[in-house]
Amino acid sequence: MIPPGLTRERGKTLRAPVVLDELARELPDATIALEFSDRFELLVATMLSAQSTDVKVNEVTRVLFAELPGPEAIAQAPLERIEELIGALGLFRQKARNVQATARLLLEHHGGEVPGTMEELLALPGVARKTANVVLSNGFGIHVGVVVDTHVARLARRLRFTREEDPKKIERDLMRLFPQPRWLEVSDLLIHHGRRTCEARRPRCEDCVIEPLCPSSQEAGLSDKR
Predict the structure, then answer these.
(1) Is 3 exposed, middle or buried (0-12, 13-18, 19+ CB in 10 A)?
(2) Counting beta carbons within 10 angstroms of the beta carbon of residue 70, is it exposed (0 to 12), middle (13 to 18) or buried (19 or more)?
(3) Are residues 123 and 74 in the same domain?
(4) Coil, helix or strand at residue 222
(5) Active-site option among 21, 38, 149, 225
(6) Which CATH number characterizes residue 203's domain?
(7) What is the pTM of this model?
(8) Alpha-carbon distance 141 to 153, whole Å?
(9) Which member of 95, 130, 173, 188 is catalytic?
(10) How many domains, the chain?
(11) Active-site residue 149, yes or no?
(12) Distance of alpha carbon 22 from alpha carbon 152, whole angstroms
């Protein structure tokens, strides 16, 4: 419940924990949408998710992992076959190369296991900080950062939790604003709320549980009436 007197005009430090609590009550099942059965599948699925929807990635990985389960199978497969299996995704050729190169590095340097540090993950081909944060948070329960995708970036700005455009700077602002044990929750809740309610082109403020705490709600409402 939003405390009386707490409005969208109050400072972000006061609003932030209440926003998160309200979203947690509204979206109790908000978790990562990618399907995976182990850390390697999580890593690959996250690598494939760039410029692709989670729904499409899940469709692709069900077939990919059924035919090529684990890093050994992917490392040994013809690159052309991996490209065929993930061909429905954007940038599939580059993704295929990165996934296979990553599988081979895992076998050569990590015993086929996904490493559990940011530094080691960033050394893998095609793995940037966002992917590493997803793997560490969801695969290891280690929260060293906040996953900033397009939804998180958009909502963080609309809620005036940041005024930055660069994902690394947005992540920095969110890490300062929320306690570390809740960093995964921040990502999951903002992503789900962004998909369901606070859409990019037409935010549905009338259906938003945190509208009273959103500095952008009036502006969005006015734009919707034009």
Answers:
(1) exposed
(2) middle
(3) yes
(4) helix
(5) 149
(6) 1.10.1670.10
(7) 0.89
(8) 22
(9) 130
(10) 2
(11) yes
(12) 16
